[in-house]
Amino acid sequence: MIKEKNTSTTRLTEPSKPTENIPYRFSYWGPFVFRSKILPAECKMILAAGKKCRKKANDYRDQLAGQLSDEYKLQDRQEFSEWLEKYLQAYAVGYNKWRGGEDTLSNLKLHSLWINYMKAGDFNPPHHHDGDLSFVIYPFIPQKLIKENKAYTGTSIGPGGIAWIYGLGLRRYIDTSQHMPETGDIYIFPASLKHWVYPFRSKIERISVSGNIFCDTFLVKKGEN
């Protein structure tokens, strides 16, 4: 039988007074997740396009990971491409400021595009996408869902929120980025970055559009292979 030993901890050094004059630098880790706002007219265009495509012939669920009953392929990619590219180039600018480099995105190809009508109890489990970059746009977030989210008292972002995860989940690491989307939000992120959406109880529809992008020039820091 193993007997328990009395254990204690010993302070190796006495805490010193706070020092404010020590210079330091720190490293940026992980992926770049871009957040911006699309125009109200672009939100209206998305909602109108979704209404046209909301039919059985455009059911896109067999291509997706979500536990949703209403997900549809959007047909008119050209209409989206005409205004979407400026946000993708803004992503490139932000990425270069964040990490360093001079690359832009060239020969952009919108590979897939779909709209999600998320309802009470629906859930999008952890998953990733095809392509180089992915995006999600929120043309409409109902006030009832915002109210439910604000009333949430747990430790996650709460009902209707989206989360990205990177790394092993070790303590003291920032391995998750979580957001409660607002109407007009657009997020652009690496397609391989795992993410998910939290369910909610409100009897509403949370509408989002997602898509995947292929491009010839991906974002590489200058001087790196």
Write the layout of secondary structure elements.
Elements: E1 34-37, H1 40-53, E2 71-73, H2 77-99, E3 109-118, E4 124-127, E5 133-140, H3 143-151, E6 162-165, E7 176-179, E8 185-190, E9 194-197, E10 206-214
Antiparallel strand pairs: 1-8, 2-3, 3-10, 4-9, 5-8, 5-10, 6-7, 6-9
General description of the model:
This protein is of the alpha+beta class. It has one domain: Jelly Rolls (Sandwich). Helix content is 20%, strand content 25%. It has a six-stranded antiparallel β-sheet with strand order 1-8-5-10-3-2. The longest helix is centred in the middle third of the chain and has 23 residues, at 77-99. The N and C termini lie far apart (58 Å).
Keywords:
single chain, 225 residues, alpha+beta, Jelly Rolls, four-stranded antiparallel sheet, disordered C terminus
Short description:
The protein has 225 residues and is α+β, with helices and mostly antiparallel strands. Helix content is 20%, strand content 25%.
